[in-house]
Amino acid sequence: MSTELLLVFPVLGVVVGIAAGLLGVGGGGIMVPALSAIFAAMGFSLAEIVHLALGTSMATIITTSISSARTHHQKGSVNWVTWRAMTPGVLIGTFLATFLVALLPAQLLATFFACFMGFVAVQMWRPLKATSQSNPAKAELFAAGAGIGGVSALVSIGGGSLTVPYLNWRKHPMTNAVGTSAALGLPIALTGTLGYLINGWQHTDLSQGVLGYIYLPAVLVLSIFSAIAAPFGVRLAHSLPVPTLRKVFAVLLVVISLRMFWQVVGG
């Protein structure tokens, strides 16, 4: 691997960490397109770069989700009753979706990712504030968890862009919606990583640092540098115009997602 590529992973980790702390977003929207480009430059085939980017991103989310969940728990913002009701669905949906990912071609995955990031960008630009008068039954929470886990595995995110709007719609206060979503990110990340490990096992090549659909050197470096950078993002959130930055970031998500789409589908 060239020196230039070695330097890219720490820089990417810092960007992901600052974005998480500053804007409260997960790193998948940045990591997957960036890792796809990096893996292409490293010589991995186009048929596997998206799968490898998704698996690597999911594994990296484990450390950030642990830190985030712990912080929200300490602040008392996690609704553990809702968490327990949604987690079984999350585990099943996330794990099964990784089997679907293994069957889908890179072009289709890139298309779905770009479309989903467009949805996320719209939310960031103009958040929806839907409300509901009913309390969700356990069966609904299970089904919602399964759906959120499945989509999260397909695009390698911690689920916050889906869980927070859903819980807010179901009358959870925003602080509880964010905290519970952060706590649900851990089972999503753990189960998703296991699924990408199992389904990509035949692609394992430890001489290149690849275990299943996970590129181990990237996971290590990204986890370290994103964890270091996240507190700086939190501090910046108190001094910068976050609403404006969210709109800028929304545009950035669309641009980098479309670039990944063009690289995989048009390239």
From TrEMBL:
It is a multi-pass membrane protein. The keyword Transmembrane applies. The chain crosses the membrane at residues 7-32, 38-62, 83-102, 108-125, 137-157, 177-198, 210-232, 244-262. Its main location: membrane. GO terms for cellular component: plasma membrane. It is found in: Cell membrane; Membrane. Keywords: Cell membrane, Membrane, Transmembrane, Transmembrane helix. It holds the Pfam family TauE. The keyword Transmembrane helix applies. This is Probable membrane transporter protein. It comes from Halioxenophilus aromaticivorans.
